[in-house]
Amino acid sequence: xxxxxxxxxxxxxxxxxxxxxxxxxxxxxxxxxxxxxxxxxxxxxxxxxxxxxxxxxxxxxxxxxxxxxxxxxxxxxxxxxxxxxxxxxxxxxxxxxxxxxxxxxxxxxxxxxxxxxxxxxxxxxxxxxxxxxxxxxxxxxxxxxxxxxxxxxx
Amino acid sequence: xxxxxxxxxxxxxxxxxxxxxxxxxxxxxxxxxxxxxxxxxxxxxxxxxxxxxxxxxxxxxxxxxxxxxxxxxxxxxxxxxxxxxxxxxxxxxxxxxxxxxxxxxxxxxxxxxxxxxxxxxxxxxxxxxxxxxxxxxxxxxxxxxxxxxxxxxx
Lengths: 154, 154
Prior knowledge:
The structure is a homodimer.
Chain A: H1 3-10, H2 13-29, E1 36-41, E2 44-50, H3 63-75, E3 83-89, H4 93-102, E4 106-111, H5 118-121, E5 131-134, H6 138-153
Parallel strand pairs in A: 3-4, 4-5
Antiparallel strand pairs in A: 1-2, 1-3
């Protein structure tokens, strides 16, 4: 493989989102709302987390929150300016607020959240230096959510 | 003392805000932005926390977040519907978002935050059933912040 091909295959947004989806699958299997996140620094995953609100009995234990705490722990600094957060569903207000304090470099989310996504409330919640992209593997990300809420209604 | 007098003296908003201020003083003494919080259930403090962003090297470690996690741990349930959060400074977006997920019954804050307070972004971030009151001992709450930022500039 050429270097460019290796880079595309292993270090693409799709590759890292697939790792976030694996975390969402862990959440799904634990009867949690299936959201997963990974944080990447220089093409290396430095933290990964699944939503654990029920498991930890903690309303703040969203995948992004755990991943941010874990990444800053790894990083040794409270800012994540050069990091990318990959998360399967658009962050809520709480998690978007946390990325503000971490001054995270970039957010890549899968599926938009038209009910609880932070953009419904105010797009400017993010830090001015944070870039944001959505729609990466959105169908795969959303499929888990649909399955979860369908199971809840049974 | 009559029962009513005891109630007023020991279980007033001022009394609980003073306990939150004690937590803010701990933050101040640890060179943290001096914010403190307590969570009260049926007139009993079930959690208290000071801001620990620097101490824990964690951008999510605001006083309110720690107090919420701690209160749900005490409570054994992820909701805090019958609880009151006393916090010395108006919550930021992240913390207001956390109170949404906890469905906290009431928020009582001391001083408004005209720069990072959640109300600048959207007043509807709170859960529809959450009541909110501000201005309790606001001068005392704000004094610590003024002292802190004055010290930073020296």
